[in-house]
Amino acid sequence: MLHFKKLRLSGFKSFVEPTSLEIDKGLTGIVGPNGCGKSNLVEALKWVMGETSAKQMRGGEMDDVIFSGTDKRPARNVAEVVLTLDNIGKNAPAQFNEAEDLEIARKIEREKGSLYRINGADVRARDVQLLFADQATGSRSTALVSQGKIGAVIAAKPTERRSLLEEAAGIRGLHSRRHEAELRLRGAETNLERLDDILVTLEAQMNGLKKQARQATRYRNLSDLIRTADATLFYLRWTAAERDMDTFRIELSEIEAEVNRLAVVVAAAGTEQAEAAADIPALREAEAAAAAVLQRLIIARDGLDEEEARIEAQANETQRRIEETVADITREQSLISDADAAHTRLTEERAGIDAARNGEDETRAEAKQALEAAGEAVGAHEGTLSELTQRVAESEARQNSLARRTDELQTRSARLQARKTELSEEKQKLEADAPEAEALSDAERDLTRRQTDVADATVMLQDAETARQAGDRTREAARQTLNEARDAATKLQAERTALSQLLDTGDPDMFPPLIDALNVEPGLESALGVALGDEIEAPIDEAAPIHWRALPPLIDAPALPAGATPLSQWVQAPPALARRLQQIGVVATGTEARAMMGDLKPGQRLVTRDGGLWRWDGYSVSTGATTSAARRLESRNRLREVESQVSAADQRFSEADKLAEAARAELATLGEAEQTARTNLRNAETALNDARQMLAQIQNKMTAHNSRLGALGDQLTTVDGDLSEATDQLSVAEQERAALPDVADDRARIESLRVELSERRTQLMECRARHDEIERMARERAERLAAIEREMTSWAGRKETSETRLGELTQRRQDLDAQRIELANKPAELNQRRQALLNEITAAEGKRTEAADQLATAEQRLATADKALRTSEAELAASRERRVRAEGAVDQARQTCHAIAERVDDRLECRPDQLFEISGLDPEKPLPDLETSERKAERLHRERETMGPVNLRAEQEMNELSEQIETLTTEREDLTKAIEKLRRGISELNREGRQRLLQSFEEVNTHFQELFAKLFGGGHAYLELTAADDPLDAGLEIMASPPGKKMQNLTLLSGGEQALTALSLLFAVFLTNPAPICVLDEVDAPLDDANVDRFCLMLEHMAKNESTRFIVITHHRMTMARMDRLYGVTMSERGVSQLVSVDLQKAEKIRQTA
C-alpha cells in the first residue's frame, strides 16, 4: 500500500502562500473557525487525485480553484497541489515503481486547463485516477467523508449505495476498464458496420464499372467509324470548296475591267458640273443682299407692332394700379375708424376697473393683519407645547440614560479590574526580552518599487487579455462561419456526387433508357413512375431490340374523363412518349380516380401524386407504392437543385476561409503578447512577495517586543485611569438619578395645549385663504390695466400709420391719372411710321424677285450636270460593289478551305491531302453523295452522343477497386476477431466483478454488524441486497435495531441513529478494503458527547491496528483531545488562509518531563 506523506499547495483557493500539511501515522486533526478554509485542504486532496467536476470543488468552473484575490492581494493565475506518497514497499504501477517516493502534482493555469505530473513526468488524468483507484482511494472514494456525505448515504437509493460495496470490493478500476472495453467494442462494431457499408458500396461500384467497361468498348468502335465518315465528308467538302474558289476568281477579273471603263465616264461628267457651279456664288450673293434689305424693313414693321402692343399693355397696367390704389385708400380709412372705436371702448373699461379698485388697499391691509394675528397665536401655542414636550422628553431620556449608565459603569469597573491584573502579569513576562534593531528604509523603498512594477504589469496583462479575448471571439465567429460554410459545401458536394453516381449507371445493351430523357415537375415522380412502370427503362433508339418509336399524334384519340388532367402538361418527354402521356390522367385523390375508373377508354389510366394507379381494364395500384423509376426521377430533380446551390456554397466557403485565416494569424499575435505580459506579471508578483516577506520579517524583529511592551504600559495606565473614572461616574450617576423631577403634570398640560393648537391652526388656515383671494383679485385688476394701456398705445400707432399711408396713396392716384393720359396719345404716331415702312418694303420685294430669277436659271444648269455625274457615279459604284462581292466570294471560298483544313487538323489530326487515304474511298469508283455522307456522319455522332458520359478508364478503375475490396475483406476478418476477443474480455470482467462484489458484501456485512454494536453499545444490524438478476445491478438496503428497538429500515430511525448507522457502514467498507488515507470532515457534528466518545475510541483503535492515516476536521473539543497532532487553520487576513500545527504527543511528553 502506498502511504500518504505530505500535501503541498500553493495558490489553491484561500491558500495563496505555499503551505504544507504533514500526513503522519495516527490521527491528524484540523481545527479552525467556520469559513477559515479547512475544507479547502480536503478539496485540494481530492483535486490532486484527479477530480474533474467543478461542482465537486464548490465552483462554477475549474478555474475557480485558483486564488481569486482580495482587497489587499491580487488574484493568482496559477494553482498547484503536490501530494507525496511513500513507495518503499514498491506497490506503485510498473512505470513508476523505481522511485521510493512518488510526487503526484496537478497544476492549473487560468483559462489553460490542468497538467498532471508524476515525479516530474507528464501523465494523463486517467493515469492518476487509475493509480489511486488501484490503491482503493481516489477523489470519489468512500474514505473521503466530506460534509454532507453522511446525509447522502442516508438519503441515497439502494442502487446508489451499491457503489459502497464496489469500493469495498476494489472494482471501481474494474468498472473503468470494463467501460473502456465496451467503448472499444462499440467502436469496433461501428467500424465493422461502416466496413460492411463500404463493401456494399464498392460492390455496387464494381457492377457499375463492369457496365462502363462494356460501354467504353462500344464507344471506341463508334469512334473509329466516325473518323472514317468524317474523313469522307471533309474530303467531299474540300474538293467542292476548291472548285468554287476557281469560279469566283474568273468572275472577279471580268468585273474589274468594267470598273475601269466607268471611271473615265465619271471624270468627264465631273468637269461639266464644276463649270456650272462656278457662276452660282455671285448670283447667290446678289440675291442674299436684296433679301437682307427686305428682311430689315420687315423687322422694323414688326417692331412697330410690338411697340403698339407694349403701349396697350402699359395702359392696362396703369388702369389696374389705379384700381388697387383706390382699394388701398378705402382699407386705410376703415383702419382709422376701427382705431377710434377701440380707443373709446378701452377708455370705458379702464374707468370701470379704476372704480372697482377704490378701497382695495384697506381691504388688503385688514386681511393681512388678521392673518398675522392668527399666525402669532399659533406660533405662541406651538412654542409653549414644544418647550413642554422637550422638557418631558429630556427628563425621561435622562432617567433612562442614567439607569443604563449605572449598569454599564458597574460592569466596566469589574472588567477593568480583571484586565489590570492580566496586563500586569503579561508585562512582567515581557520585560526581560530585548529585540534587535534593523533598518527599514531599504526594504520599504524596495516594496514600493515592486508594487509599482506589479501595477504596471497588471494593466499590461489586462489590456493584452482584453485584446486576446476580442481576437478569440473574432476567431471563433470566423471558425464557426467557416465550419458552417464547409459543412454546407461538403454536404452539397457529397449529395451531388452520390446522386451523380446513382444516376450514372449504364445499361447492359448499351442503349440509354427513356427515363434519362424525361424531366418531370417535383411531386409528380411517383405518378409518372407508376404510370409507365418498367417500360420507362426501354430506350428510344430504334436499333435496340426493345425500344420506343416516335409516331404521329392520334387523330381520333379518346378524351380523358372530365376532371382528369393529361400527365403531358407536367412532363417534358421525347415525341415517342406523346401518345402515352396524352392517355394518362392526373387526379387529386384516389376517391376521384375510383369514381372515374368506369369511364376510361382502352389504353387510358389514372394516377395520383402519391403513386396510385387505376387502369381501364380494372388493374389498380394502391397509393404509397414507391417504384425505382419514381426514386430515379426524384433523384434527377434533386440533382438539378443541388447543382444550382453548389457554386454559391463554394463561394461562401472561400470567403469564410480567408476570414478565418486572418483571424487565426491575429489571435496568434495577441496570444504571444498576452503570454509575455503574463510572464512579466508573474515575475513582478514574485519579486513583490519576496519584498513583502523581507519587510515583514524586519518589522516583526524590530517592533514586536517594543510595541507590545509599550502597549502594555499604556494599557495599564489607561486601565487605572478608566477604573478611577468609572468609580467616580458611577457615584455621580446614582446622585443624578435620585434628583430627577416628576413629569406627570407636564404631560397633562401638553394634551390641553394640543387641543387649543388644533383650533388655532384651523382659524389660521381660514385667514390665509381670505388673504390669498384678495391678493389674487388685486393682482388681476393691475394686470388688466397694464394690458389696456398697451392696447391703447397699439391702436394709436396703427391710426398714425394709416393716416400717413392714406396721404401716400392719394398722391400715387394723381400720378397714375397723368400717365394714363400720356399713353392714350401714342397710337396715332405709330400709324404714320407704319405707312412709310410699307412703301419701302414694296420696292425691296421687286429687286429681290429679279435676283432670284437669275439664280434659278444658273441652278437648273448645275442640276442637269449633277444628275449626269450622279448617274455615272452610280454605275461605277454598282460595278465596284460587284467587284467587292466577287472579292468577298473569293475570300469566303479561301476561308472555307482554311476552315475545313483547321477542322480536319482538329478532329482528324491530318492534312487535307491525306483525307482520301483516311476515308478509304476507291479511286476507281465515283465519289459518294455529299448529303448522304453528312447524314451518315450525323447519325454516327448522334449515336455516340446518346451514349452519354463514358468512362474510358473503367477497366483500370475496376482492377484498382478489386484490390481495395480484397484489402477491406481482410480488415473485416480482423475486426470480427477483435470484437470476439473484446466480448470475451468483458464477460470475464463481469464474472470477476460479481465474484468480488459478493465476497466483499459478506465482509462488509460482518464488519458492519460489529461496528454497529460498538457505536451503539449493543443492538443488531445487517445489510441485504435487493432482488436483481445481476449482483452488479442490485441495490443495498440497511436494516438496523438499536438497543431496545425493533428491526427496521434505516430511513425509519432518528437523525442521530441514522448518522451512527451510516458511519458504521462507511467504516465497514473502509475495513474491508483499507485505503491509505481516510478524511473525516465534521462527521461528529450531529453526535452528542457520549456518541462522540464512542466514535473517537473507534478511530483510535483503527489507527493503531490499521496502516491507514486519518485526517479529522472537527469543532468538537472531545475529538480534538484525542488527536495525535493538531493543525489550525486561521484567516488573520480576510480571504487568506494560513496553517499552524501542534504535535500533541510531543507536547504531552514535554509536560510530563517538566
Structure at a glance:
By secondary structure, this protein is α+β, with helices and mostly antiparallel strands. The chain is built from 21 helices and 22 strands.
Features:
single chain; 6-stranded antiparallel β-sheet; 1154 residues; alpha+beta
SSE topology:
Elements: E1 3-10, E2 19-22, E3 27-31, H1 38-48, E4 78-86, E5 101-109, E6 113-118, E7 121-123, H2 125-134, E8 144-145, H3 149-155, H4 158-169, H5 172-278, H6 280-356, H7 360-430, H8 441-503, E9 519-520, H9 525-532, E10 565-566, E11 571-572, H10 578-582, E12 584-586, H11 590-596, E13 605-607, E14 613-615, E15 620-621, H12 628-738, H13 744-824, H14 826-907, H15 915-919, H16 930-945, H17 954-1016, E16 1020-1025, E17 1036-1041, E18 1048-1049, H18 1055-1072, E19 1077-1081, H19 1089-1105, E20 1109-1113, H20 1117-1122, E21 1125-1133, E22 1136-1143, H21 1144-1153
Parallel strand pairs: 3-20, 3-21, 8-19, 12-13, 19-20
Antiparallel strand pairs: 1-2, 1-4, 4-5, 5-6, 6-7, 9-11, 10-12, 13-14, 14-15, 16-17, 17-18, 21-22
Helix pairs in contact: 3-18, 4-17, 4-18, 5-14, 5-16, 5-17, 6-13, 6-14, 7-12, 7-13, 8-12, 9-12, 17-18, 17-19
Structure explained in plain terms:
The protein has 1154 residues and is of the alpha+beta class. The chain is built from 21 helices and 22 strands. It has a six-stranded antiparallel β-sheet with strand order 2-1-4-5-6-7. The chain has a six-stranded mixed β-sheet with strand order 8-19-20-3-21-22. Helix 7 packs across helix 12, helix 8 packs antiparallel against helix 12 and helix 9 packs antiparallel against helix 12. The protein is flat, with a radius of gyration of 60 Å.
